[in-house]
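Um, can you check?
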Amino acid sequence: MSAYKIINPWYVVGLVDGEGCFAIIITKHKTKKFGKDARLCFEIELRADDRPILEIVQKRLNCGYLYDLNYKRYGWKPHVKFYVHKQSDIFYKVIPFFKQFPLPGKKGKDFQLFCQAAELFKQKKHLTEDGMNQLLKIREFMNERRPMFE
């Protein structure tokens, strides 16, 4: 039996609670309506010597890519990033996994907001000015931007 089938899903939850990130990426785009492009992404970044852990997570979720990162200019050791940006993988693999195995810490709040944003994407509202504004509002409360005491 391969390792990804026997890995405890709660291990993945704990790893993501500490090292994962759910994000709404909004960038300037010359040819897109409103001059902006939006996408959802989920990622986990670890030191490169922990790559086997991310390979197991990748197999468990059956999606995403691994990228090697070189932080030599900062004096850091190399890292590896597990990255999911394909909408169908986010909708049908990442979100269902974390709905089945909820995140207990503050990352759970980010996940709830991430799910709200995903609904806007499913309804194609991210292609409208109102939808883009809703995504910007949701993003205000995600990750480090969230007020410490809610």
Notes: The radius of gyration is 16 Å.
